Structures are given as C-alpha cells and as structure tokens.
Amino acid sequence: MGMNHIHRRCVLVGLCGMSITPHFLYADEDYIDLDWTDLVPEGQVIIPQEIQGLIEHKQSTPRGQQPPSTGVRSEWNGQTVRLPGFIVPIDYSGTGVTAFILVPFVGACVHVPPPPANQLVFVTTETPYETAGLYEPVNVTGMFGTASTTTQLAQIAYAISADRIEPFEA
C-alpha cells in the first residue's frame, strides 16, 4: 500500500506541475484553433442571428432578452486556444481595452439581443489592446475555460485569459 500511495502522489504532483506551466513557454503555433460551433455541445444547433431575431419577434418575451444556453463544452479547459470574433469593450486602461466580450457576429450584445451564453467569451488581458473601435474583428489566443460571468449586457459561459490579441486574419 505504501508504494501505491507514493506512486499516485508522484503522478498527481506531475499533473499539477503541467497545469501551471507558464504561457510564455508555449511555441507561437502551439494552440488549438476553435470556431464558434465548437463551443456548442454536440447535437445542439446554433440559430443564425437573422433567424433568431425573427423567432424572438414572434415570441412574447422582450426582444432584448438573451436566449437560454444549451450547455457548455469543457474539452479545452486549461488549454491554449485561438478564437476569432468581434470586440465589445467592457474595461479600459488608458486607451487600451483590458476586458471585453468576444462575440461571433457584429451587433451582438449592443444592437441586437445577445446570443446564448455559450456563444460569448469574456476576455481579459494584462497588456491593454489598442482597439480600432467597437466590433473590431480579432483573433484572441490564450488560456481557455468555462466560467459563468454576468455583465450588464449578457450572461457569458466561457473565458479566455489572453496572451495575444491580433487583428483578424483567416
């Protein structure tokens, strides 16, 4: 029993050490490219914004109400990912944004109702990003995780601690 206990402890210590590896040790291309469809549980359907607006208009709920989320996916928790999207600023430091909601389409959370929580990502960065303005298309690379966050604009199901924010490139 003593040997098994020590072996398990070594494995656990090794796993813990892997999870706290600093971001700067990752190679520039060492990330998982995600798409917005990847954030929705398998078997669930993403309703395009144009159709979603029509559905909400016919329902008795207010047009600005956020539709319910169909759950989250946690396969990429703790991993470095890259996700494209548009910036909806939340917090600034000087002229740079330090916290924002990454949204899948222009107008989300401001001009049209927010998409479900599993189609929104709360992004924070230590280095303020000098944004070109509301809804700038960007690629965000950083540590990904499920994290229930509430802002004045919407419920958010995911978070990225950004190591890199760049203008969008396909």
Features:
170 residues; alpha/beta; OB fold (Dihydrolipoamide Acetyltransferase, E2P); five-stranded mixed beta barrel; 2 helices; 35% strand; DUF3299 domain-containing protein; DUF3299
Describe this structure in words.
By secondary structure, the protein is α/β, with parallel strands linked by helices. It has one domain (23-167): Protein of unknown function (DUF3299) (OB fold (Dihydrolipoamide Acetyltransferase, E2P), Beta Barrel). The protein is built from 2 helices and 6 strands. The protein has helices spanning 2-19, 49-58, and strands at residues 32-33, 80-93, 96-103, 121-129, 137-150, 155-167. Helix 2 (49-58) links the parallel strand 1 (32-33) and strand 2. The N and C termini lie far apart (54 Å).
Topology:
Layout: H1 2-19, E1 32-33, H2 49-58, E2 80-93, E3 96-103, E4 121-129, E5 137-150, E6 155-167
Parallel strand pairs: 1-2, 4-6
Antiparallel strand pairs: 2-3, 2-5, 3-4, 5-6
InterPro entries: DUF3299
Pfam family, one: DUF3299
Protein name: DUF3299 domain-containing protein
At the fourth level of CATH, the homologous superfamily is Protein of unknown function (DUF3299)
How would you write the strand order of the largest sheet?
2-3-4-6-5
Q: What's the order of the H and E elements?
A: HEHEEEEE
Number of domains: 1
Instruction: Tell me the span between the first and last alpha carbons.
Output: 54 Å
Number of DSSP helical runs? 2
- Flag low-confidence runs: 1-26, 49-63
Strand content: 35-45%
**Count of DSSP strands:** 6
In one word, what is the shape? Answer: globular
Protein name: DUF3299 domain-containing protein
InterPro entries: DUF3299
